[in-house]
Amino acid sequence: MPQEMPTAASFQTLADVEPAIALTPLDGRYRAQVAPLVDHLSEAALNRARLVVETEWVIHLLDRGTIPGLRTLTDDERALLRAIPADFGAGGIAEHAAIEAETVHDVKAVEYYIKRRLAGTSLEPLAEVVHIYCTSEDVNNLSYALMIRGAVHDVWLPALREVTEAIADLARTTAEVPMLSRTHGQPATPTTLGKEMAVFAHRLTRQIRRIEADEMLGKINGATGTFAAHAISVPGTDWEESARTFVEHLGLTWNPLTTQIESHDWQAELYSDIARAGRILHNLATDVWTYISLGYFRQRLSAQGGTGSSTMPHKVNPIRFENAEANLEISGALLDVLAQTLVTSRLQRDLTDSTTQRNAAPALGHSLLAIANLKRGLAGLDVDAEAMAADLDANWEVLGEAVQSVMRTLGIQGVEGLDSPYERLKELTRGRRVDGEGMRAFIRDLGLPAEEEQRLLALSPATYVGYAPRLVAHLDDKTDDAAGGAADDAAGRAADGAPDGDRR
């Protein structure tokens, strides 16, 4: 008799397998590509950042004489404190977890972890300075700012710069390779491959400038942002100045007005910028995918890796671009949720942000994975200029714009017999293919002045690219970032307001 299909109850429980099996693809299949983010956005990285904030706060208070009657630190004592986060590895992670299991509070566990390190040292009598005047959010907001700054500036931005430079290099090397444009999917005025790649490099460069300039804010002002515990304990200290200098010591921008939490607006701004950069990369992925399908790019199997298709040996699938497309969609969705929700906290505090902020890790992880795939995919492309040339030669009707523009110009200059240029070209070209001979015959029958006629007769789809080759050089423009960004913002707002009727 046939055996029954095994049921889920008969399977081994994978949750019990050791070492533990990753739940998400970022920590499993794609671990190698996103591993650099572990140093910045993992739970262990969060606790290490908390150790940095807590120990630096102790140093700040004692060295500035903030609390009357307490001595300053020796060099060895500062080194001891700073070694606590520096030495936080596997053993420390396990110890902190054990403490947290008792306290059921992750920040309090950090405080106790530090105090254990001070036991038996010259700093033991000063152990109660650890976490003094702080609410957990004082430590957390600064820790997250340090973590996110490291993840973005040390890992994510360098990866984005690399892929942007790869796009720019492709643009420069193909600046003069003519290519048929497609607007609304239809043959349109030719361009060059390099100019189209330069558009993406230029867009990404602008986003890089924005993200580099994004502020990262921090605060350390107590349970409801009023410095109440500070002021009642040591009324003679300028606590606003102390908070400002401490936040700036960490390399952050001081936020003087908060509730219990730092308002997270800077995170929302940053995540929106990162998401926008991701959407530009998504646009690149879909366009390159389309150029591959048109035969404009050939893929080297060795660069893409592995089998092209499980059943069709002739295929080299554009998997790097498809992987990037999917991961950018996931990243963008997560970043949007972060940007939308982190700006709201009920009254002076709720804890929704606690779990939300932890998801910066998968949001940036999926983006970093996408960038890695785009970089690898671009490195495996060969340009098929012959395929592009053949496509251009099959679409002479795209010269209709050139011919009617010359006719219009001559007509307004008083040359007779060139009336209704758009309509005449529309009759020749709309909905039909026109070959070179047909277009040249039409030009000869127009009765153009000799100079204009010869200029149009010498034209071909491959040479009708305007300034496209030289426009690529704008990638090397040296402009003032602030002025350029403001101009781009204004242009973007103007474009957003363009009427829907503009359908060229």
CATH class of the largest domain: Mainly Alpha
User: What fraction of the residues are assigned to beta strands by DSSP?
Assistant: under 5%
Q: Give the total of beta strands.
A: 6
| Number of H/I helices | 22
Count of folded domains: 3
The profile of the biggest β sheet is:
2 strands, antiparallel
Radius of gyration: 31 Å
Ends apart, CA distance between termini: 69 Å
Structural class: mainly alpha
Arrangement of strands in the largest sheet: 1-2
Q: Which runs of at least 5 residues are low in confidence (pLDDT < 50)?
A: 481-504
If classified by CATH, what would the architecture of the largest domain be? Up-down Bundle
Shape: elongated
* Helix fraction bin: 55-70%
Briefly, what is this?
The protein has 504 residues and is mainly alpha-helical. It is built from 22 helices and 6 strands.
How would you describe this protein?
- With 504 residues, the chain is mainly alpha-helical.
- It has three domains: 37-134, Fumarase/aspartase (N-terminal domain) (Fumarase C, Chain B, domain 1); 137-307 and 316-388, Fumarase C, Chain A, domain 2, CATH 1.20.200; 396-457, Ribonucleotide Reductase Protein R1, domain 1 (Orthogonal Bundle), CATH 1.10.40.
- The chain is built from 22 helices and six strands.
- It has a two-stranded antiparallel sheet. Strands 3-4 form a two-stranded parallel sheet.
- Helix 13 (319-341) packs antiparallel against helix 15.
- The longest helix is centred in the N-terminal third of the chain and has 38 residues, at 136-173.
